[in-house]
Amino acid sequence: MKQDIHPGYGWVVFRDASADVAFLTRSTLAADNPGNPGRPEKTVAWADGNTYPVVDVEISSASHPFYTGNARVVDTAGRVEKFNRRYGRQDRSTR
């Protein structure tokens, strides 16, 4: 097996600003390796007293509608009828 081909793996805080939630996990983003996108420049002090690199994300499981249960149900039958009324399309069974 080849040696030294895997990126480093360390602790990183992912922060979702829209839900005001942050979580600490391990990621390859914590390593400074060639070919790696790079260690995040921002840091944050965590509850355990240590400082970790932080990555700001726009959406996470705390704010995504699928996980929060706030998904909207779309009335597809109403949309089809609205389309038919708007463009003057008639029901084919009446022809």
The structural class is alpha+beta
Global outline: elongated
Residue ranges: pLDDT <50 for 5 or more in a row?
none
* Head-to-tail CA distance between termini: 72 Å
Helical residue percent band: 10-25%
E-strand count: 4
Report the major sheet. Answer: 4 strands, mixed
Report mean pLDDT, rounded to a whole number: 76
Number of domains: 1
Series of secondary-structure elements, N-terminal to C-terminal: EEEEHH
**Which strand order does the major sheet show?**
2-1-4-3
| Number of separate helices | 2
Tell me about this structure.
It comes from Luteimicrobium xylanilyticum. Belongs to the bacterial ribosomal protein bL31 family. Type B subfamily. Part of the 50S ribosomal subunit. This is Large ribosomal subunit protein bL31B. Helix content is 16%, strand content 25%. The protein has helices at residues 65-68, 76-86; strands at residues 10-16, 21-27, 43-45, 51-57. A four-stranded mixed sheet has the order 2-1-4-3, with no helix packed on it. The longest helix has 11 residues, at 76-86. The chain is elongated, with a radius of gyration of 24 Å. The N and C termini lie far apart (72 Å).
Tell me the layout of helices and strands.
Blueprint: E1 10-16, E2 21-27, E3 43-45, E4 51-57, H1 65-68, H2 76-86
Parallel strand pairs: 1-4
Antiparallel strand pairs: 1-2, 3-4
Subunit structure: Part of the 50S ribosomal subunit.
InterPro entries: Ribosomal_bL28/bL31-like_sf, Ribosomal_bL31, Ribosomal_bL31_B, Ribosomal_bL31_sf
GO cellular component, one term: ribonucleoprotein complex
